[in-house]
Specification:
By secondary structure, this protein is of the alpha/beta class. It has helices at residues 38-42, 46-50, 63-66, 69-80, 92-99, 159-166, 190-196, 215-220, 237-241, and strands at 4-7, 20-25, 28-32, 53-57, 84-87, 108-110, 122-127, 137-142, 147-150, 172-176, 205-208, 224-225.
Length: 245
């Protein structure tokens, strides 16, 4: 269950694309967040064309994480005629989408994570700390073979997630990271990760949501770094600037 990324940038790094990941589970497409650039970069992907239905997990309500969600839901319904399920513990999202003109009857909203999701995926939300006054969540994802964790925006690597990695209950962690300590109190820094994570498991932590280009420092410290997929139709400016592996 390795994630593919549409973008790996933070809010103030738009040229790297809004941080958003996706994967297929049987005939279901799963999208983790849908920020300002996500719809544009997903619209021509073969995974979207070939799936039967779409499921969107939302970590929180900042624009770089839900900025194109309304357009994406509308496109899936009116153009592709594919059902969309949107899941988050935070029901405020329904009001936000309604203000965008996206009626609740045009998608399925789900707050209940106690039962498996389409394709048999088990999803467990974990509240994380990002900014005051806004609910934010990371997600454990279990496909029957492995468990991974996707942090969303979080000012630290949750200790229970690190413990799960150390005990091999979690295979891989996707963790947001900024470069320097103190740049933004709502984000986790590379320095914090280096202080908290033993070297022997660092390669299992995939850093993402970059505020600047410090990929060399991430890899030098022993961590992995998320890379975006190439544009489906043709290489765009983003693809030219970032080496895609």
């Amino acid at each position: 269950m390795k994630l593919k990324f549409l973008g790996i940038g933070a809010a103030y790094n738009p040229s790297w694309g809004s941080n958003s990941a996706f994967f297929l589970m049987e005939d279901q497409l799963y999208l983790l967040d849908c920020g300002e650039s996500a719809f544009e970069r997903l619209v021509n992907r073969p995974e979207l064309a070939g799936c039967r239905a779409v499921n969107v997990l939302v970590t929180h309500l900042h624009a770089d994480h839900i900025g194109s969600l309304g357009s994406f839901i509308s496109y899936c319904g009116h153009v592709l005629e594919k059902p969309v399920l949107v899941a988050t513990p935070d029901a405020t999202l329904v009001t936000v989408l309604d203000l965008m003109g996206i009626r609740p009857d045009t998608y399925v909203f789900r707050q209940d994570f106690t039962k498996p999701f389409p394709g048999g995926l088990t999803i467990t939300p974990l509240p994380v700390k990002h900014v005051s006054g806004m609910a934010c969540y990371g997600y454990y994802l279990y496909d029957g073979e492995e468990t991974i964790f996707y942090s969303g925006d979080s000012n630290a690597l949750p200790p229970q997630v690190l413990e799960g990695l150390l005990t091999e209950e979690i295979t891989r962690v996707y963790q947001e990271a900024t470069y320097r300590e103190g740049v933004h109190a709502g984000h986790c820094s590379l320095e914090q990760l280096c202080a908290a994570v033993p070297p022997d498991v660092r390669s299992q932590i995939v850093c993402m949501h970059f505020n600047e280009d410090f990929l060399a420092a991430v890899r030098s410290a022993g961590f992995s770094a998320a890379s975006p997929v190439r544009a489906a139709a043709e290489e765009n400016d983003f693809g030219k600037r970032i080496i895609v592996r």
